[in-house]
């Protein structure tokens, strides 16, 4: 679990920074201010949850568990669904993709609940 979460954290961190720079420099003149803000929201949540994946990787060294693994999976899934849908929405204008975004948000929330359960159950980490 450590290696998988660390690799995902690195991948999502790298791509989050790259997409943020792309938005700031490459999309600024092409997207409306509203769509640019939506894209940046996707970047913001991606970077936050890349750090959450990094935390899951570190905790897994001391307290590996299925619930912790579920948190990692849910954070990665949340990035793909939440941030990914916002990126595609802003770049294509397909408003119907907005229906996917809440599923990603729900995955984020469930990941945080799983991480909280791990903390609740932890003894002397």
From TrEMBL:
Main location: membrane
First and last residue of the signal peptide: 1-23
Keywords linked to the UniProt accession: Membrane, Signal, Transmembrane, Transmembrane helix
Entry's transmembrane regions: 44-61, 68-87, 99-120
Family from the record: Belongs to the UPF0382 family.
InterPro entries per UniProt: DUF423
Membrane topology category: Multi-pass membrane protein
Source superkingdom: Bacteria
GO cellular component: plasma membrane
Cell compartments where the protein resides: Membrane
Record protein name field: Uncharacterized membrane protein YgdD, TMEM256/DUF423 family
